[in-house]
Amino acid sequence: MPPLRERRKDIPQLVRYFVQKFARRMNKQIETITSDTMKALMNWHWPANVRELENLIERSVILTQGTVLRPPLAELRTDAQTSREVATLEAAEREHIARVLRDTRGIIPGVHGAAARFGLKRTTLQSKMQKLGISRQEFTH
Questions:
Q1: Which of 26, 20, 75, 25 is closest to 47 using CA atoms?
Q2: pLDDT tens-digit map of 20-75
Q3: Least enclosed by CB within 10 Å: which of 48, 79, 122, 132?
Q4: What is the DSSP-derived secondary structure letter of residue 106?
């Protein structure tokens, strides 16, 4: 049988089945699955296949209060979203380090150096700079 990510049309039926199964087991009355929820479930790539979907729905039923299913959709972040956030975080970190290096004229060690402003050891800041491709020489005058 093909993986769930290749059978997206089966997801709504599976979701409804698992919701009924777990709601009955937990004596809960869940009547609604919002279209946004279903869309998020259908767009997820389901690396662990049907078992992952079943586990998510079970947790969702446990967490749901009321009659509308409330799954933890934050767990269904796409890799593209995650990589965009990482890129944005790296860019923000790079800019922040560059700003402090400009302010300290490229000085890293010492009481007035960039490392002290960050509350980091000199070697830790140098390691971050190397990872982010920042050269101290760009900021010395």
A1: 75
A2: 999 999 999 999 999 999 998 998 888 778 998 999 999 999 989 999 999 988 77
A3: 79
A4: T
Q: Is 133 left (phi over 0), alpha (psi -120 to 50) or beta?
A: left
Q: What is the pTM for the complete model shown?
A: 0.55
**Euclidean distance between CA atoms 101 and 6, whole angstroms:** 49
What is the spatial distance between Cα 9 and Cα 12, in angstroms, rounded to a whole number? Answer: 7
Q: 11-25 and 49-63 helices cross at what angle (nearest 10)? A: 50
Q: Phi/psi at 124 (nearest 5 deg)?
A: -65, -45
Instruction: Break the chain into its structural domains and give their ranges.
Output: 4-76, 79-139
Q: What is the pLDDT of residues 81-139, one digit of tens each?
A: 555 665 677 888 888 898 899 899 999 999 999 999 999 999 999 999 999 888 888 78
Q: 44 in helix, strand or coil?
A: coil
Spatial separation of the C-alpha atoms in residues 58 and 81, rounded to whole Å: 25
Please name the fold of domain 4-76.
Helicase, Ruva Protein; domain 3 (1.10.8)
Hunting for tokens 């402003």 — which residue is that?
117
Query: End-to-end distance of the chain based on CA atoms, in angstroms?
Result: 65
